[in-house]
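Researcher: Structure for this, please.
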Amino acid sequence: MLIQANDRISQVQERFQALFPLLQLRFYRIGHQVGETSSHRDEIVNTERTLKSLNPNLQSSEVPANPETTVGELELEFAQLAGLHVQIFRKAGKEWIQTTNTDKWTLQRQQEIAAETAYFFQNIRR
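Model: Predicted structure, token format:
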């Protein structure tokens, strides 16, 4: 997935979600280690900000966001290639949850689990 300095956060998020509709990419002021959560207070909520406003030295980069990439690898690549701190979220019913306990899962597996969860919630009898 190509990211460029003049991209807005929302544009990158839309590109990512086009690849993985049941996953979200959120940006943060500070990084985290694999398996750690990111604090809600550190989330960058203004998605109209450009990437270069987060990292003035950002060069265009190709961040590997393919189905075989793990969540941890993708988050690490954003940090190493672009100096950006991201966290992946997975749709779980009506909520979005951080994938911290499953950072070693591939993006494809995250997407599949989210789809299974969506199917369950759509078909639950009340």
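Researcher: Any notable elements?
Model: The radius of gyration is 15 Å. Residues 107-123 form the longest helix (17 residues).
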